Each structure stands twice: as C-alpha cells, then as structure tokens.
Amino acid sequence: MSRTDAILSRLLALHPKLIDLTLDRILRLLDDLGRPQDRLPPVIHVAGTNGKGSTVANLRAMLEASGKKVHVYTSPHLVHFRERIRLAGKLVSNRQLNAALEHCERVNGGKAITYFEITTAVALYLFAEEPADFLLLEVGMGGRFDATNVVEHPLGTIITPVSVDHIEYLGSKVAGIAAEKAGILKRGAKAVIARQTDEGLAAIESEARKLGVTPFVAGQDFEGFEQNGRLVYQDNDGLLDLPRPRLAGTHQIGNAATAIAAVRHFGLPVSDADIAKGLQTVEWPGRLSPIKGKLSALLSPGQELWLDGGHNEAGGGVLADSLRQMNARAPKPLVLIMGTFANKDATGFLRHFGDEPVAVFTVPIPGDRAAWKASDLAEVARGLGLKAGPKRSVKSALEAAAEVKGARVVICGSLHLAGNVLALNGTPPV
C-alpha cells in the first residue's frame, strides 16, 4: 500500500458513512485551517448529473490556451487519487498531496468527517497555497449540501444536464434533484445552465429567482450544434464557426457549447482562437475514449476498442446515440462489455441500445463497493432481448469479443470499471 493510500484509509474511517450530506463538518475543519475557501482564485463552480467533467475539461483547455494557470478539482478519480487535484495546470505531486493530507488529518484531530469532506478540504487548502488565475470546482454529489459548496462568492456557476442518479441521497424526481443542484447558485454570481428537461429547468429557474439570478440557458440564450463536421455556437453576441470537439460523442457538442457559453457570459479572458484551440486539445480520459495498448492487443485485426464511464440511464442514452452516429459514419458490429454498481439502473442504461449490440458480455467490478454480479447483469440484458453472457474479467470478455469480426467493442457502465481498465492497460491519466 502506498503512503497516499494508507493516509486515505485512515481518513475513510473517520465517519461511519461514505456520504452524509451536510456542510457543518467541512466548515468546522475549514475554520480550523484558516478558511482557505476565502483565499482562492476566481471560482467557477460546476454541478449537474452528466457532463460536469467534460464541461470542466473544455473550460480548462480554453483557459490554458489563453495562457492562464488553472486549478481544477474533479471526482472521482480513475486510477490514482491525485487525478482529482490539478494545481496551476499540473496534477498535484505525491509529495504535496501527502503533506496536505497529513496536515489536514492533524488539524481535524480525529473528529467525525466523511472521506469526501476532508479530501475536499485538502484540495481547497492546496488551491489557496499556490497561485493560479482560476479554479474550476466540480461538485461531488447534489450541490446544496455538497462539500464543495463552501465558496460564498464564485465568479460563476454552471449546471450541466440533470437526470436521475444517486436516488438514495437525492431522490427519484428530476425536479427535486435539479433544485438540489441549483443550491450552488449564488446571489451576484452569473449562471450558465445546460439543456434540461422541462421540469428540471423549472426547478432551477425557481431557485434562481429567489436569489435574483437571471440564468443564461441553453436553447433560450445560447445554442450549439454540429454542422458539416464543425461546431456552430450562437448567442446574442454572435455566431462562432469552430472545430468539432476532440472529445468523441454527440453529447460533447452540448458540453462544449456550455463551456463556450461560460467563457462568453462570465467574461473570461479567452479569445475565439483560444476557444478553437481548446476544443482541439481537450482531454478527458474514460469518456468515450479510444483505447490502444495491452487490452486492444487482445482483439482481432479490424476491431476497435472504446471506453466510457457513463453509468446512469441518461449516460446510457448519450452513449447509445453517440455509437449510432459512429456507426452511420463507419458501420461495425457493436459489442458491449459492461459492469456497473448494484445501486445503478442497469435496465435503464441498456434499454437505449435497442437490438443493436450483437453481444453483451457482463463483468464484475473489482473493489469493495457492491456491484452487479456478472450473471445477474447478463440476465437483465437478456430480459431486454439482448444476447448476453457473463465473463470472469475484462480480459476474458475481450477474448470473447475478439470472435466478432470487425466489431466496435465498448467497455462501459462505470467510472470505477473505467479506472480498472486504464490501469490494466498501463495508461492511467496523467
């Protein structure tokens, strides 16, 4: 076990629950740390169910294209914890991370606090100690009572598409979930809202009115769409004809448009050329990413290997739509390799694919959290009319997929599984 993992194991034992949504504990620790949340560079706070990380990645790429130094906080990580904390453009070093973890552990003094709360305090402490031009701060879960919601005066807030996820904590109604996400809105801070369902948007706008905030809304105030292989963005300030985002998938058009809307609505120092460069250089591993290396070598010539960490019903929908677009351009038989956690709606995820997969191979997810058994997940897939069978591991599933000539093989269903895949492949995020 590494030093980092040993510290994180101790922190995990400080609270009996992994998630316990309230701000009391982190505010107490931040006070004891000297209130680092008051010493941050301008903050852009991002909540939503899907697309948070991709929107943040696009924004970071655009700001860095303009020469700005950017702190970034995202979760979860895929392979190594330090992926969550980017200091002025670079992942935090193991030395810096361990020192900050141990400092916050000492200051906390063994008091009850959840893993995400204390590690968020660590991130804020690090961000306050190193200069940067901006901080992109991604919500972990919900918004109103998320540990990141301690910045009183952000430069701006963003809410990406809201759908049903984490129902045991946020409920099963989109309106209620959206209202919780809208808890990050702040009086005096501009807000950009990605395209939402009618009920989701109504809930967000209701929360905004209470704060005197007039949100900048996709479909009303700005729009982004693909045309002739390009991204066209339009708002009241004019139209931009831009390169298509480097990130694959039709949903990335909306994520990129949300990031561009933030650049323009928040008045960020980013030129149109910087926006274009950011779209061409953005990276966000594990989100419909092509995989090359040890695992792709298990497939047959002419096959493709892709990885996507989407894990809820909406994630299944955007993945299925993106794969249909791929297939329209370059037809290939589709094979899914899927693993997901037991609290996820596997039926909702898979139903979006119709009868398009020629095979679904289900796999377990290594680790402590409860995951669907591969046999049970295969039964769910068969109940939808899919040809499905369980496999012992990702490697054995790939070996089975290799028998489908010319297939497009997609590993999907979980960011945790995506991290396992990248580790197996020897290609962790850097």
UniProtKB/TrEMBL annotation:
It holds the Pfam family Mur_ligase_M. It is an enzyme of class 6 (ligase). Keywords: ATP-binding, Ligase, Magnesium, Metal-binding, Nucleotide-binding. Its cofactor is Mg(2+). GO terms for cellular component: cytoplasm. Its EC number is 6.3.2.17. SUPFAM superfamilies: MurD-like peptide ligases, catalytic domain, MurD-like peptide ligases, peptide-binding domain. It catalyses: (6S)-5,6,7,8-tetrahydrofolyl-(gamma-L-Glu)(n) + L-glutamate + ATP = (6S)-5,6,7,8-tetrahydrofolyl-(gamma-L-Glu)(n+1) + ADP + phosphate + H(+). Residues 46-263 form the Mur ligase central domain. GO terms for molecular function: ATP binding; dihydrofolate synthase activity; metal ion binding; tetrahydrofolylpolyglutamate synthase activity. Belongs to the folylpolyglutamate synthase family. This is tetrahydrofolate synthase. It comes from Paradevosia shaoguanensis.
